[in-house]
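Q: I have two molecules that I believe assemble together. Could you output structure tokens for the complex as a whole instead of separate predictions?
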Amino acid sequence: MTPEKLKSPSRRADAARNREKILAAAREAFADPEVEVSMAEVARRAGVGMATLYRNFPGRRELLEALYVEVVDGILAAAEAGEGEPAGERLTAWLLQFLDFSTAKRQLVAELLSVDEDSRAVFNQNRARVLAAGEPLLAAAQASGEVRAELSLAQVLELVIAVGKIRGEKEFVEPILAATLDGLRPPD
Amino acid sequence: MTPEKLKSPSRRADAARNREKILAAAREAFADPEVEVSMAEVARRAGVGMATLYRNFPGRRELLEALYVEVVDGILAAAEAGEGEPAGERLTAWLLQFLDFSTAKRQLVAELLSVDEDSRAVFNQNRARVLAAGEPLLAAAQASGEVRAELSLAQVLELVIAVGKIRGEKEFVEPILAATLDGLRPPD
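A: Yes, here they are, computed for all two components at once.
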């Protein structure tokens, strides 16, 4: 195998494109929790050979981990958005994004745990990244008096996750989430 | 078998005592979800013979249903408490009681479903009883402006159940529940 630094720029671009094609195919393939997708199927969907797939991701676990880190990266990027907006609104917007991402995350977590119980280390590491990204948002919203001071970010996230798991029609579930987020405002 | 109305008062009292002994034994025996308890074990714990047990409860399903109805009766009785207190506090107190009961209820529901998928009819019927008991409490608290008007009782109960499922140390979980109940107050 040619070491990365000796490759021509176009070969490096090809390699990055392959990696992205594999991740996109895997993201889509793993989205349906009912279907167990093989590595061969991922390669087929990505339009790459098995050698290319395994060069990028030595196994199912590495592929799932990459997808998981990608989701967490999305949560972190969302924490950067809305700069200049009121701290309370910025936090609420981020919590909603966090919730969107966490549905995808939950599936990957389940898949990862089914491959390897040791994935807990990956979760803990990424959980720490999420907390570090969200903490300044919560601190700002608490400092400005827009969000109650008695909850930590871990507690706020558990609350949002719990409410996000409530099943039902959109018209039933959405007002519960809206009231919960609104209820984070401090009492007078 | 002697018809109930021909029995002497003391025999009727005996029968009621036996029924209560069986329910108490079953309540305790079924409290541990890890252990599958047989009908024979329930009879042994209650100190009654198998004939007496089966005369009261023809099967595991009838026994579980009786325990389930008992829990729901407790939720209904709790709705009667606190008359004369501010409507918001009365509702909150009831929601906390509802949550206490619902842990026991959840186990019985799981057991019942494992015996018979048709138990759904029993759940729906008892769910209607809970809603009927709690609705006046919510209506009063909304009318007095102590609780936000946009949520129905079904929504409030789902929220409380969801928060009640959050796992963790008491010191972590309790403030989340307290903030949630406090957050039911309407925004200014």
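A: One point stands out. DSSP finds eight helices and no strands in chain B.
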